[in-house]
Amino acid sequence: TGATSIVIYTEAVRPKGSEFSVFYRTRPMAEEESKLEDQKWYEFSKSSKDVKGNSYDEIPATDNYIQFREYAFSIFELDQFDQYQVKITMHTTRQTHPPVFAHLRTIATS
To answer: What is the model's pTM?
Structure first.
């Protein structure tokens, strides 16, 4: 059987003036002939509290580069899939202060 949900945990420092987004794409099991690379990317919600108590939007930005905070992203009830990819995009108004990540964990479950 395939997975139907994806949960992402990462620790990050998100400096003031910077943002990041997490995306996923899956290859549905029903489409055995299709390629994962041909599938569309979808952005995880930044307001969801499905897994942890705080959403991305509720975690304040900080310029303290030793204060990593845990972020969680999740999506449930997807069509069954047997392959998936995750990507993170970063945006900042201060090029010398990008987001920094540690301990990225991805989990696919049914």
So the answer is: 0.90
CA atoms of 67 and 14, how far apart (whole Å): 9
Q: Which two tokens stand for residue 84?
A: 């998936």
Longest distance between any two alpha carbons in the chain, whole Å = 47
Q: What's the rounded Cα separation, in Å, for the pair 74 and 103?
A: 16
| Separation between Cα atoms, residue 109 and residue 29, nearest integer Å | 14
Q: How far apart are CA 88 and CA 19, in angstroms?
A: 10
Q: Where are the beta strands (DSSP E) in the chain?
A: 5-13, 18-28, 42-43, 69-75, 81-92, 100-109
pLDDT digits (tens, 9 = 90+) for 10-33: 999 999 999 999 999 999 998 888
